[in-house]
Automatic annotation (TrEMBL):
Organism field: Streptomyces plumbiresistens
Protein name as catalogued: Sugar ABC transporter permease
Membrane-traversing stretches: 36-55, 92-115, 127-147, 179-202, 233-253, 285-310
SUPFAM superfamilies xref list: MetI-like (SSF161098)
ABC transmembrane type-1 domain segment(s): 93-306
Similarity comment: Belongs to the binding-protein-dependent transport system permease family.
PANTHER family: ABC TRANSPORTER PERMEASE PROTEIN, INNER MEMBRANE ABC TRANSPORTER PERMEASE PROTEIN YCJO
Length: 318
């Protein structure tokens, strides 16, 4: 047998050796995984705009800087120890947590009820969805000034109570230390309950109707179907809503400052309003930045803990 120059006898090792899949895997991975350096410009911009100023801010938290004087001293943990002895700061932290928890519970409970209502076969459900979601698109500062006029001593709320013969319920809603905090909570819930409703509504519409029909055939009532069928499938929507509302409640500033300015007295002061006052009214920038660091830690700890718990419950439900 005569072989051409480009031909050769087959090697026995070529038949016995399994084909190498690594090149295929490498090619496939190269085609499906984008290069990491595509994100490099955005990461550099984020570092320049967020990370570097934040790191400098943490540095100032350990100084007595007044915000203007280029000469300042390093004071170590004095700002944080002063915070622990500051009754106003401790009260503001308590108000912040109370507002965050109250908003989270009330807003999500109301949002879920609204979602269940507009998810039914009502003819006006589309109009109701738009009407209930509309407050969420209004700027928070505009909403706060609107409700500041409505809740004033001569506002529409007291006028309506007097018109229907409930003069005994007329209150100075924003001027009473006992009611002002809950008035703020009510305004925030009024504005963002529709936002929670939309997220819950998306979760409800993703639940297959066949599951409800099968549960109904098995004799499960509406409450039982919701608790055993709908509730577990709403876990992702509940996780999103709880995360957004608890973080938003902890960082709340616009509505509080526009409605009450932290008053009367310090009855509605939160960490955010106290940071603003200490920095721009008292000129204690070092102390205010220390408060901001504490606020950041609270947000990180609460949101991380909440996410871990909700993610575990979500996996258990699925």
């Amino acid at each position: 047998m005569i072989l051409a120059q480009h031909e050769h006898l087959p090697d026995h090792d070529d038949h016995d050796r399994a084909p190498d899949a690594n090149p295929v895997v490498r090619v496939r991975r190269a085609r499906t995984t984008p290069p990491w350096w595509f994100a490099l410009p955005a990461l550099l911009l984020f570092a320049f705009v967020v990370l570097v100023p934040s790191a400098r801010g943490v540095h100032y938290a350990f100084t007595d800087w007044d915000g203007l004087d280029p000469d300042f001293s390093f004071v170590g943990l004095d700002n944080f120890s002063t915070m622990l002895r500051d009754a106003d700061a401790m009260q503001a932290i308590g108000h912040t947590l109370l507002i965050a928890v109250s908003i989270t519970v009330i807003q999500n409970a109301l949002g879920l009820l609204l979602a269940l209502g507009v998810n039914s076969a009502l003819k006006s459900r589309n109009v109701l969805r738009v009407f209930l979601f509309a407050p969420a698109v209004i700027t928070p500062i505009v909403t706060a000034y609107l409700w500041r006029n409505l809740l004033g001593p001569d506002g529409a709320v007291n006028g309506l109570l007097g018109a229907v013969g409930l003069d005994g319920l007329r209150q100075d809603w924003l001027g009473s230390p006992r009611l002002a905090l809950w008035a703020v909570v009510g305004v925030v819930v009024w504005q963002f309950a529709g936002y929670s409703m939309v997220i819950f509504l998306a979760g409800l519409q993703s639940v297959p109707k066949e599951i409800h029909e099968a549960a109904a055939i098995d004799g499960a009532g509406p409450v039982r179907r919701f608790w055993s069928v709908t509730r577990p499938l709403l876990a992702p929507a509940l996780t999103i809503n709880l995360m957004l509302s608890i973080i938003g409640g902890i960082k709340l500033f616009d509505q509080v400052y526009a409605l009450t300015g932290g008053g009367p007295g310090h009855a509605t002061d939160t960490i955010s309003t106290l940071i603003y006052k200490d920095a721009f009214t008292l000129g204690e920038f070092g102390y205010s930045i220390a408060l901001a660091v504490v606020l950041t830690i609270i947000v990180a700890v609460v949101s991380t803990g909440q996410y871990l718990v909700l993610a575990r419950n979500e996996r258990a439900a699925s």
